[in-house]
Amino acid sequence: MSDIERELELELHRxxxxxxxxxxxxxxxxxxxxGARGKLLGGAGAAVGFKILTGVAVAxxxxxxxxxxxxxxxxxxxxxxxxxxxxxxxxxxLTQGQHGIGACVSGFASNKQHGQAVASAARLNGNGNSxxxxxxxxxxxxxxxxxxxSGNSHKPTANPTDEPRDPSSHAxxxxxPGP
Amino acid sequence: xxxxxxxxxADFERLYVNSYRRILGTLMTLVRDQATAEDCAQETFERAYxxxxxxxxxxxxxxxxxxxxxxxxxxxxxHQRIRQAGEMVRRLGRPAPGPDPSLVAERSELVxxxxxxxxxxxxxxxLRHYHGYTNREIAAAIGVPEQTVASRLGxxxxxxxxxLGRR
Lengths: 179, 167
Fold this sequence. Notes:
The complex is a heterodimer. By secondary structure, chain A is mostly helical. Helix content of chain A is 53%, strand content 0%. Chain A starts with a helix and ends in a 54-residue tail after the last helix. In chain B, α5 (109-116) crosses α8 (146-166), α6 (119-129) packs across α8 and α7 packs across α8.
């Protein structure tokens, strides 16, 4: 190593080594440009997303309100209990050996308009097979729950105050006796 | 040698802590003052961060940073020439600021002479004689043939001798 190189090294260390004792400042944050995804979510996409979410929320609320309105309760199990109770009442009303409990229970179901309410909610929701319609045993009306969302098997009468229809023209609901 | 994973946030932070001072040291010899060197160091790490995902681990990370730092310094010198005229006008009539004893580097005749060299020559000299890189490592760091590094070092030493000899 030549003299000039040695001097160079010494002088550079003398001048620059004090920097090594300086505290390291925090790194400056890098601002990144928003990507296509950010633009979509932040712009029109945000509005569309908000509308979809609002739609879903409104549909869910409609189902809840319809259920509450027909049974007086937010709990779908209440409907099943009411039907079970009605079955017992109908049994009591019938004399020994007399048949026709189907018409009695069907009348109760029609008056309650449960099928119509559920079908409307399902249509609002855009999903006839939604679990919200309670087409399983919870309502105690297994085959007639209106599972396709049209409510046709539990078709409501034109007038909610109509008398129970003839069981021969309307499939009698198969009601589980309940607990 | 420290190992880093491209794209890793934690590794970049580690690289920053490990190499900030050395990058700043190099920049102190390339730009006009410490404040500018600090700005350029931050700019270097900003640029590096943007390319961190595509960094090739075959090359040492600090050498890659030095390459970016040298480019930042060259860019700063270009802008400085434009700014200089305006700054001179603003400073007219004001008393000169007193010397800051902590800024040893800024008072150094050698560092002042280095600042007058072309940045690529000054950088080669600092990488060789301050950071202890070999000519081959410098060549890899700044992306030129080893022969070019040798000729830049030779030219830089010659000019430094001439500059310091005149004083």
